[in-house]
Amino acid sequence: MQVTELPAEGLKRQFKIVVPASDLSAKVDERLAELAKTAQMPGFRQGKVPVGLLKKQYGPALFGEAVEQAVNSSTAKAIEDRGLKPALQPRVDLKQLEEGKDVEFEVAIEVLPEVGKLDFSEVELERLKAVVPDKDVEDAIGRIAKANREQKPVDPPRPAQKGDAIKIDFVGSVDGKEFPGGAAQDYTLELGSGSFIPGFEDQLVGAEVGKDVDVKVTFPADYGAPELAGKDTVFKCTIKEIHEFVDKPVDDELAKKNNFENLDAMRKAVADRIGQDYAQVSRTMIKRQLLDKLADIHKFEVPEGLVEGEFNAIWQRIEEAKKAGQKIDDDEEKMKTEYREIAERRVRLGLLLADVGRSNSIDVTAEELNQAVMREAMRYPGQERQVLEFYGKNAELKERLRAPIFEEKTVDFILELAKVSEKSVTPEELLKAAREAEEADDEDEPKEQATN
């Protein structure tokens, strides 16, 4: 095998490789000898077929197999001998392919860049920290108490009021014709909950048990079912029961009903949960800060092939949005330029984080991967077992969960080294800052605009 390095630029490398015809011929002969031991042909006993006949029948296929193996092995050796780290699969261009002659081909690859020395101790970041106000805890406890309210029939009987729970039968019709999904029996509806289309619940305030009410409403113009959108509709309702809610006192009994030892334990758990929510918002913001600073500080060349792949993935989503009827900026070339810059930034950050993780032995454990699968399963209540079985049978799909875990662990590693100051803020200030950061991102990145 002869390898000649060709001129290249930047991260690109190119080689010309020549595999002698004698090597290929020897490989074909070797495979024919193996085949001859078990081959069968009419008129010959097994293993007694002449090699010449086998070569006539299988020679071209075996030559193709030998070429493929030679290309793969010689390409891998050329890369290994030079200590190169390909960013993508090598591109092979066959220049000469004819049985009995040397095989000549060129290999083009892009290599991973040298990220360089990284000193995260000079990265300055600010983490916003919100303390959970007692009022937020009490409001949450109040919602728990509301969710645990009991219902009892109104006594003495009276017309329905806002806040009551009524049991009704109803049948909906448009232009006198009933429509699918527009009827129900023994449906419990809390008046004032806003769970039905606007105007429906208001017309049942004052209704009495045993009396029918015609509720006349108009479906919103953007209603999910196109055949009903904007249509005038009549629901014939029969009031069967009227119940009122009985508030539950906020005490140890309420806590025990919700699987807490006592009210203090429930308050602490609620405060911790709210605190975790605020901490996640703060975490998202400081991660955004960190990535922005890393992108600004570390400028190194990135493989064009990776950028092109990322850009194509982004642009495919834009094309799909256009097909779905969303309005896109008329200046397509400008959009492509901006999205290509975004693609390059993502690739650069991905390579940087990968380098940090690799050089610092950051890894994702089997336990962490299993926990991620469990979290995915929890997103589908009632179908947890099916989801777990699905991931159990699809190792490749399970492996896709590794990348985001690796990224978060690498970000945590960098944050430990960076100069992070904390600033105490109110929850309102934290959420406002988060919204402003998201709006700034929206301005920086071109977005497809919904049709008016």
Which homologous superfamily in CATH is the superfamily of the largest domain? Trigger factor, C-terminal domain
CATH topology of the largest domain: Trigger factor, domain 2
How far the N terminus sits from the C terminus, by CA atoms, comes to 64 Å
β-strand number = 11
Overall residue-averaged pLDDT value: 89
Structural class assignment: alpha+beta
Number of domains: 3
Architecture blueprint of SSEs:
Blueprint lengths: L1 E5 L5 E8 L1 H16 L14 H31 L9 E6 L6 E8 L13 E7 L3 H14 L2 E4 L11 E10 L2 E14 L21 E7 L13 E15 L5 H6 L5 H35 L6 H20 L8 H28 L6 H13 L5 H10 L1 H5 L2 H16 L1 E7 L1 H18 L8
Parallel strand pairs: 5-11
Antiparallel strand pairs: 1-2, 2-4, 3-4, 6-10, 7-8, 7-10, 9-10
Helix pairs in contact: 1-2, 3-5, 5-12, 6-7, 7-11, 8-9
Features:
five-stranded antiparallel beta sheet; Alpha-Beta Plaits; four-stranded antiparallel beta sheet; single chain; disordered C terminus; Chitinase A, domain 3; 452 residues; 12 helices; Trigger factor, domain 2; alpha+beta; 3 domains; 20% strand
Structure characterization notes:
With 452 residues, this protein is α+β, with helices and mostly antiparallel strands. The protein has 3 domains: 2-110, Trigger factor ribosome-binding domain (Alpha-Beta Plaits, 2-Layer Sandwich); 150-246, Chitinase A, domain 3, CATH 3.10.50; 274-444, Trigger factor, domain 2 (Orthogonal Bundle), CATH 1.10.3120. The chain has 12 helices and 11 strands. The protein has helices spanning 21-36, 51-81, 134-147, 252-257, 263-297, 304-323, 332-359, 366-378, 384-393, 395-399, 402-417, 427-444, and strands spanning 2-6, 12-19, 91-96, 103-110, 124-130, 150-153, 165-174, 177-190, 212-218, 232-246, 419-425. The strands form 3 sheets. Strands 6, 7, 8, 9 and 10 form a 5-stranded antiparallel β-sheet that branches. The chain has a 4-stranded antiparallel β-sheet with strand order 1-2-4-3. A two-stranded parallel sheet has the order 5-11. The longest helix has 35 residues, at 263-297. The protein starts with a strand and ends in an 8-residue tail after the last helix. The model is unreliable at 446-452 (pLDDT under 50).
